[in-house]
Amino acid sequence: MVGTVQGHRDGHGFVVRDDDEADIYLPPNEMRAVLHGDRVKARIVRSDRRGRPEGRVVEIVERPRQPIIGRLLQEGGVWLVAPEDKRYGQDVLIPKGATGAAKPGQVVVVELTEPPALFGQPVGRVSEVLGEIEDPGMEIEIAVRKYGVPHEFSAACIAQARSLPDRVRPRDRQHRVDLTDVPLVTIDGEDARDFDDAVYCEPARVGRAKSANGWRLLVAIADVSHYVETGGAIDVDAFDRATSVYFPRRVIPMLPEKLSNGLCSLNPGVDRLCMVCDMLVTAKGEVQAYQFYPAVMHSHARFTYTDVAAILGNTRGPEALRHAARVPDLLNLHEVYRALLAARERRGAVDFETTETQIVCGDNGRIERIEPRVRTVAHRLIEEAMLAANVCSADYLVRSKHPALFRVHEGPTPEKLEVLRNYLKALGIGMALGENPKPSDLQTIANATKDRPDAPQIHSMLLRSMQQAIYTRTNSGHFGLAYEAYTHFTSPIRRYPDLLVHRVIKAILAGNRYHLPVLPTPGEAQAKLVRRLEKNGASKQRAAARASAFSAEDHAWQAAGLHCSANERRADEASRDVEAWLKCRYMREHLGEEYGGVVSAVTTFGIFVTLDAIYVDGLVHITELGGEYFRFDEARQELRGERTGMRYAIGTRVRVQVSRVDLDGRRIDFRLVRDDAESQPRAGKGGAAQQGEADRGAALPAKQKKQKTQSERARPAQAKPRAAKPEAARRRSPR
Q1: What is the DSSP letter of 325?
Q2: CA-CA distance, 149 to 245, in Å (whole number)?
Q3: Most C-beta atoms within 10 A of its C-beta, which of 108, 572, 605, 645?
Q4: Domain tally for the chain?
Q5: Residue bearing the bigger pLDDT, 466 or 49
Q6: Bridge partners, residue 660, by sequence
Q7: Could you report the per-residue pLDDT of 175-190, keeping only the tens digit for each?
Q8: Are 564 and 602 members of one domain?
């Protein structure tokens, strides 16, 4: 079997198979000759005690040229680098003279010169010195290299960006609708630096009515495709990145700053080129008609979400008086938003309320506070407007029968659906879910349980039952938003799929056909399509036949979707890694302090607790739950003590003490604190929570040792199981 090696911090690893079958377990001795990320051929030699397939690596197919980041150490006269990513299970030896200008303790980038072997460690040389571990922004420098995020534009890209004009030229205005007199405005966060969408709304007659019975809604999006030519240097770099990556205090943009913050940013008071989705919306929130066209616009104001929320909350307040000319337009936007929201509710789209947080850092890069991100009516207003434009884009692509990338979100898999059914049944929630549930079924459960004390945990389980949204050539709808077709049109500054959609729409308007600059061989894209069709119930023969019917152009689009989806996940992982590092650094200053919290996830090896007020997650290991055997109940998502019956389930309130912080492993450990003699058991043997994960087994009874080994494989350390959220549940996700 061919697959990718995924290492684990405890020394073992897995081969994640290309055919999506069960991962192959690699014991520590098999991991000695391979590295995390290697492409290998492996064969199954036996099943381990838990029935998992255990394998042996027979060939290394490909070793990605991925640099290793770590700290340079000197031990007994020997130089070595301890990888920052603990999935690399071995230190890298550095020969004398290969350390460059690096000093002991500094964070460095290592290039391998000799691969690992069964009886020898990998050898490398220092290729870059990043600095001291405590330097401001070091966590971001590590993350971009650790996850292979492109963070430097090519010389050709920079040169092409410099050659672009500073303003809209007369020739750029040709064959465009002049909307400079239309009072379009931007509405974004206080810290936004690029503005890629503007909106305007006015009452309108829909159908044969004699008076206004609906609205005309304009969504204007920066026309990035006018400046980024297909196959050019800027386009090559943009495709390589596929998305902008957002960190606290820093953004790695998809496009050079001259475009993202200049020519393609809809700044107030200047003319900008845009693509417009012009819609007629009925009183019931249905889009009666729409059209797309290139235009020139002039932003009449730059609003923040706070500004708009204040104006809509008090139309005679100071904010409203300061922007008196725009208040009627904002009220029209609010009215069309209410109509669109009503249509969303009738459609049965998923709309769970979740708490999202933002990290506020000081000038020195340290966390000052972690606070919940408040979603106001202004956020929802813009979200609904962007959703409407995206749906019109998808409909236009479907009607034209032109290949493009759709944003697809499929329903729960049978396995996840069964877990959800068992969980709801265990909680006594008597609402049945059929074999093919609709999003409205999940929303009905959410609405029925919203007043329960464990509502956040129930909603979290509903979210976890869903799959991750992807970009793909094959349109199969958006489950979470309850749309038959959906795509991304509204953020071409920061998402490459949106840029492709703009190019396709322009080609259709001109009566042409857009072609991707490179048509790769079907290969992986065709294989992935076959597996996806099989996963959705098609037989092997039928799936292969359907995939073969795709043209080379279709497979090229499919490959582009795979690339964009993978890079989106890469950006999310890098962002989460930095946030975990910052939270660990923050909690390191609070060792020994006690906090109240709630159990947010339960596993075979312990419980994850989210602290009140500061929203930091940490692990209470199973050895800290008391001196008895705890059994994991998957249906109820709880650990239950066999002797006392003590239960720890999702939603259980606990009080914990911060006992250990592992900055390198992104791990925070808690110890249970007894509130009173009746409510909580005393923690296990003192200090057990401060031992490493590999050492903890020594404190467990033999029976419990076996249970502990069921910990999840190679997830970024300390990350609790995450939900594959539908589009509407993510921060500004539709945009």
Answers
A1: G
A2: 8
A3: 108
A4: 5
A5: 466
A6: 669
A7: 999 999 999 999 999 8
A8: no
